[in-house]
Amino acid sequence: MENFIKEFNSYFDNFSFKEREKQIDTIDKKQFDILIIGAGITGAGIAREAAIRGYSFCLIDKEDFAFGTSSKSSKLAHGGFRYLAQGEIKLVRESTTERNWLAKALPNLVRPLGFVVNAYEGGKDSLTKIKIAVFLYDLISNFLSKYKNKNKHRYLKAEQIIKMEPEVKKEGLLGGAIYYDTNVDDSRLTIETIKDALAISKSKKIESYAFSYCKFIGFDKDEDNLKVIYVQDRIGGLTHTIKGKVVVNATGIWIDQTLENANIKARLIRPTKGVHLIIKQQRLGNNNAFGLRSIDDGRFFFVIRREDYSYIGTTDTDYNENLDEPVCEKKDADYLLNTINYIFPKANLTYKDIISAYAGVRPLILEERKSESAVSRKHIIIDHGEIKNFVTIGGGKLTIFRKMAEDLILFLQKKGYITYKSKKRNMSKKDYLIAVKEKNLYKEGLEKLGISKKYFDYCIRQYGKGAFIIFDYIAKDLKLGKPFIEDYLLTKAEVVYHFKYEMALTISDVLERRTESSCHIHYKKQEELARKLAQFLMKFYGFDKDILDKQVKDYLEKIEKNTKFLQENI
Question: What is the spatial distance between Cα 385 and Cα 230, in angstroms, rounded to a whole number?
Fold first, then answer.
C-alpha cells in the first residue's frame, strides 16, 4: 500500500488546495503553449490532449471546475439516439465512437445502461421505426470501429417489456426495443480529466496548471508577441498576468461574454435550458432507463436509472436569464411529470416524491430559424482574425469532448499557433491513470474498518484507484469512515481526498461537483449535511468559521432556488 500511495502522490499531489496559493503566486513568471479559458469538459479535454502531445497549458475558470453545463447534464455518455431522426449520422458516429472509447478507458465511471423505447398505438414512433433506429444505432457505432459497444440492442415483444418493466403503461403497447448507452457522473469525468492532464504533464516534466475561481478579465499581447490574459484570483484577490502562444476560449455558455472581455464583437451561442428531477428509483419502479416522447409536444427525453435514483429530463427551452443561476421552475416540473405519470400510471408522482431538481444551460451554436430541439449539437472552431492567436471552440456535447480537443489541437498546429509536434492521436493508446478495470476487488478484511461492500463499490465507481487512498485514510483513522448523515454514504475520508487531490475549495465544490450529494439528499436535509461538513472542515483543517458560514449560506440558496416551487406547492 505504501508504494501505491507514493506512486499516487507522484501523479496527483500537485492538485491539492494547499498547493494553490504557491502555484498561482508564481504564474506571472511563466510562459505556456496554450492558455485555456473555461474548465468544463471541453477545456479539460483540451488540457489532456495538449499534455499527451507534449504541450504546456494553463487552464482557468471563473468558478469551480465543471461549474456550468458539465455538472448539470443528463449524466450520460451517449451517441445521441434521437439525432438519427434529424439525419445527424456523422454526429452519431462520432458520439458513439467516443462513448465506446470512454467505456473502455474509464469503465468504473462510464458504465453500460439499457434504454427501453416503446411503441404504442397511435404513437409518433412506430414499432418498425424503433426497430430500424436501434439497428442503425448499433451499426453506426460498431461498423469498422476499433472500440465496440458490446451490449447489443434487442427487439422486445409487449409481454417481454411488461415482464422487464411491470410498472410501464400496458394499454396499447405494441412492443419496442432496448439499446445501450452509458451512465457517467459528468462533473467527476471533468475533474478526472483535469487531474489526468496535470499528471501526464508532470510525468513529462512539463509545467502545466489548472486554477478554479480565476476569472478572465482582459486580453493583450507583449513585446515578444506572446498572448497575455489578465485574470483575477477570486480566492486571493490579486490580479495575475499569464502568457502563452495562443488563447483558447472554451467557456461554453459564457463564450460570448468571454469574447466581449477580449474586445471581440460576436454572438455565437444560443443558450437553452434543460431541467432534471430526481426521485428514488423504487418510487418509480423503472429497472432500466427509458427514452420517452412528451405527450405534450413530442420532444424526446429520458428517465435515467442511476443506482438507487431515477433522473427525469431534460427539457429544452430557450434561455435568456442569468447564465450562472438557471433554476427549475414549476412549469418545467409539470411538463416532465405529465408524461411520466402517463407512461408509469401506477406511480402517480407528485411534488412530494421529488428529492431534488437542477437546471443547466446548453451552449448550442446559434442557428437562425430552428427550434431549440432542432439546433445541431455539432462543434465549431473559430479563429478571430482581428485578434491573432485567440481561438474559440463551442457547441458539441459532453460525450465528444475528446474529439473536440483533438480537432482544436490540430487546428492550432495547422495555423502555426503552436509548434507542430505530432498529428498522431496518441490519446487512444492511453487510458486514464485513475481508472479501475479489475473486478471483484473487495476484501473481506475491509469490513473490520466499517467498509461495507456497498460503500466499497460506490468508492471504486466514483474515484477509481483513488478509492484505495480513501480506504487508507479510514484504516489510519476510523472516525474518517463515518458518514456525515444517516442513510447516505458520503464520509469524511472522501472530503479529505477532495481537498488533497481534487482542488476542492468550498462546500459547494464537494456537494455539487466532487459528489452528487446535492442531487441525492432530500432538499430538506441539505442544511444538516452542509453544516456538518462545515464543522468538519473547521475542525480538521482549521478553516475560518465566517467563511464556511458564508459558503453554507450560498450553497443552501442554490438548493432553495431549485426547489422553491416544491416548497410553495406542497
Answer: 20
Long-range contacts of 18-24, Cβ-Cβ distance < 8 Å, separation of 24 or more: 18/500, 20/211, 20/235, 20/503, 20/505, 21/235, 21/236, 23/209, 23/211, 24/209, 24/211, 24/214, 24/233, 24/236, 24/240
> Are residues 421 and 323 part of one domain?
no
Enter the DSSP assignment of 366. Answer: P
**Both ends of the chain: CA-CA distance in Å?**
51
Q: Is the dihedral of CA 86, 92, 95, 96 positive or negative?
A: positive
Give pTM, 2 decimals: 0.96
Query: E strand or H helix at 232, and its extent?
Result: strand 227-233
Same domain assignment for residues 254 and 277: no
pLDDT in tens, 166-219: 999 999 999 999 999 999 999 999 999 999 999 999 999 999 999 999 999 999
Q: Do 277 and 343 reside in the same domain of the chain?
A: yes
Mean pLDDT by 10 residues, the chain (570 residues): 91 95 94 98 97 96 98 96 89 96 96 98 95 97 93 98 98 98 98 97 96 96 84 96 97 97 92 97 97 95 97 94 96 98 96 98 82 72 87 96 96 92 53 87 84 94 96 96 95 98 98 98 98 98 98 98 94
Number of helices (H) and strands (E) in the chain: give both, helices first: 18, 18
Q: Which residue has the cell 444560443?
A: 270
Mean of the per-residue pLDDT values for the chain? 94
User: pLDDT digit string (tens) for 117-167?
Assistant: 999 999 999 999 999 999 999 999 999 999 999 999 999 999 999 999 999
CB 305 within 8 A of CB 286: yes
**CATH code at 33?**
3.50.50.60
Per the structure, the complete domain to which residue 176 belongs is given by 74-184+270-365
Q: Are 79 and 203 in a shared domain?
A: no
On whether the CB atoms of residues 281 and 294 are closer than 8 A, the answer is no
Q: Are residues 410 and 466 in the same domain?
A: no
